Amino acid sequence: MHGAYRADTFPTHRMGDLRYRVGRVFPFGATIQDGGVNFSVYSKEATGCTLVLYHYGQTEPFVEIPFPDSFRIGDVYTMLVYGLNIETVEYGYRFDGPWEPHKGYRFDDSRVVLDPYAKSISGRSVWGRRDSGDSDFVHRGQIIPEDYDWQGDTPLDPIKNDLIIYELHVRSFTKHASSGVHYPGTYAGLTEKIPYLKELGVNCVELMPVFEFDEFENSREVNGNRLLNYWGYSTVGFFAPKAGYAATAPFGMEADELRNMIRLLHRSGIAVVLDVVFNHTAEGNEQGPTISFRGIDNRTYYLLTQEGYYYNFSGCGNTMNCNNAVVRSMIRDCLRYWVSNYHVDGFRFDLASILTRGENGEPLVAPPLLESLARDPVLGRTMLIAEAWDAGGLYQVGSFPSWHRWSEWNGKYRDCVRRFMKGEGQAAPELLQRISGSPDLYEGRGPLSSINFITCHDGFTLHDLVSYNWKHNKANGEDNRDGSNDNLSWNCGQEGKTDNREVLDLRFRQMKNFLTVLLMSRGVPMLLSGDEFANTQYGNNNAYCQDNEVSWLDWSMLEENRDLFEYVKKLIAFRKKHPVLSARQYDFGHNGTGYPELSFHGLTPWGHDWNMNTLTVACLWAEDHKKYGTKRDAFLYLAVNAHWEDHEFRLPVIPDGFQWQTEAVSSPYGRMTETGVYVPARSVMLLLGEKHRKHASNAQS
Fold first, then answer.
1. Of the residues 254, 387, 458, 623, which is catalytic?
2. Are 39 and 91 in contact (CB under 8 A)?
3. Number of other CB atoms surrounding residue 335 within 10 Å
4. Which of 156, 193, 567, 590 is the most exposed place for a label (fewest CB within 10 A)?
């Protein structure tokens, strides 16, 4: 004998030149193992399944292999096929079964459907090009080796209390000619911008969807412009990266290009969070296409009415049955795969309240999916961030089931700060809660449960928030009906573009005001890419279909608005230097400084009424060097004047030897006075109180 052989690796069947045998149930998908490719796919209600194999780019398959009955183990069809060239083969499945839509059965063996676990998907390898022409089926699975050299990299295990998140769209970030990168609109292009991200000071990027989607979904022409499914909130495959975002995708290298980007971001200390969409898929409602789940096991994967129609809590035609045992296992497998095979550091879950719904659409008190993710060992150090609402009217900000693991996009923070800054004094009592880290919402969980933001991809940019009273979405071809009507925006006196210097100065002051409050609030701050240099979408608050200058960041604005960029950069550095701003626990009591750790003031010290309707608010943080591991005690004072009149704030007395100095001011006319600080109308001032230089020899260490 020349060696031992495993009996379960010998082929038992043949079709033409291909040999095959019963495969292994796990893992699902197409996996290279035992000298062949193992195919494994689940369907509870199908009566039969056929593996369909294509040569790359060919319309017709070169072979179709029905799964023998003996290759079905439980509800899993599995087959190990030898002799495949993984670089040139594509695959899909046909499923036999009843076509009874009124009962939820939608099997059609004339259609080839996509493997839900496909790690690479063909058909859209170049952005905006139809690789498969007008073929009825463009999404096929491809087989990739998991052999990327990570060079020692691991997920960053980010500690949430010092994160500054930066939300971006991979294509928009570098597609504009002004970006100056070699491969605009790609993972590689983003990689070239890592030095910029480091200079700004952000240490976490949140990527809008990078799972495979079809940009041609619902594409149309409007006034000569081609509109696409640009944002990608309509997933085709949950395990495959968006190939059209990779410069190397035509060579089958999109997975490695994305991994390379993540590895280099990690090398620069920047974590990666993916925006994931498990609430619905690209298959839509009853009139939508059959791509994958619908043709494999419709009643398992979707929430259906008794008549076989799709519940639509997503606003996109269908709703995934996320708390079904099979579906939640698929979601967990997916997240584990991205953490282990792509070193992703966290996930933001789109319309996450859908993940709390049961099979009849009812909200569950303890959703099995959310608990399983919160307690999963592989995801144990992974950020889990919920967009805690859905399109069906469920709003769970502050009450999202968390198991002390889930954080939330704090929509109440966004709305409150917007109201206050535009001049609504009745928002002041709530503003104090929001700056404090929203203890009224997260008292039992801690301030890091709150992801604070003023703007995100969905809505106005920061520039547009202070430049438009109304949305301007006519270019979307929906007669301006799409997008939110409730933006809590204010144009500072003139709608849209203007040369009025007074209006422009006020707009930039307001942008600085928003950013200062955001970066001085407890919780985890999130910035929208481009806000740091006043990027505009020209009043479009729903640019989901705009693959053009509306969505692309114009990097020439960075130089034009360098002052704003430097202001944000300084605020981020200040926040990092003072850990009292990113405390993990609520603490309003006195600390080692002899002062309350966080206190609120008005125009006079210590006199603020938490129930007061006012537009002048001041905050004082007392940073205890022993508690936070800093070199010395420090006092941070923020004066916010959202009033249309100038005001002087009297400063609270701080210990002998400490002296106030100005750190940031949004108006050039703000200044310190003999008794306090003069804060012009609609502006903020940030002060730092530290020991004066002459006392340095006695400074705490």
1. 387
2. yes
3. 24
4. 590
